[in-house]
């Protein structure tokens, strides 16, 4: 019988995305204005059932970032090219050696004056 790593199984069961494992969470204020190269991506489901994107960046490999609406739409669009399979899309992205660099900017929505995060492709 294969040896079971109970700690690893426990860690995986307690996180929403495999990209969270062993990494610290980045806040938007940590990444605003910085060009960041997407290293890997995934999706996760929050407690209220909303799907959101998760990223790691080449510049900060020991950290992860939970993306908002626009970044989640981007990941969903990539996954749609692979019949909705986010893992396959991520693997193809890694294998392609292509680099997608983003830069986030905080702004106010014109209609509601709520804080929003704009995403720019660099």
- Give the biggest sheet: 6 strands, mixed
Main β-sheet, spatial strand arrangement: 1-4-3-2-5-6
Percent range of helical residues: 25-40%
Helix/strand/pairing category: alpha+beta
Q: What does this protein look like?
A:
By secondary structure, this protein is an alpha+beta fold. The protein has one domain (16-121). The protein has four helices and six strands, in the order αβαβββααββ. A six-stranded mixed beta sheet has the order 1-4-3-2-5-6. The longest helix is centred in the middle third of the chain and has 12 residues, at 69-80. It is globular, with a radius of gyration of 16 Å. The mean pLDDT is 92.
Describe this structure in a few short sentences:
The chain has 4 helices and 6 strands, in the order αβαβββααββ.
Q: Which keywords apply here?
A:
6-stranded mixed beta sheet, alpha+beta, 4 helices, 122 residues
Give a topology summary.
Blueprint lengths: L5 H8 L10 E3 L1 H4 L4 E10 L5 E7 L2 E7 L2 H12 L5 H11 L4 E8 L6 E7 L1
Parallel strand pairs: 1-4
Antiparallel strand pairs: 2-3, 2-5, 3-4, 5-6
Helix pairs in contact: 3-4
């Amino acid at each position: 019988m294969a040896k079971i790593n109970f700690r690893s199984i426990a860690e995986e069961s307690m996180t929403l995305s495999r990209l969270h494992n062993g990494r610290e969470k980045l806040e938007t204020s940590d990444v605003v204005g910085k060009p960041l190269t997407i290293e890997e991506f995934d999706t996760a489901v929050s407690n209220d059932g909303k799907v959101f994107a998760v990223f790691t960046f080449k510049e900060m490999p020991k950290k992860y970032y939970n993306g908002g609406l626009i970044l989640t739409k981007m990941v969903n669009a990539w996954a749609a090219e692979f019949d909705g399979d986010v893992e396959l899309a991520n693997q193809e992205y890694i294998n392609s050696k292509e680099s997608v660099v983003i830069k986030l900017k905080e702004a106010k929505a014109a209609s509601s004056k709520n804080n929003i995060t704009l995403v720019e492709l660099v």
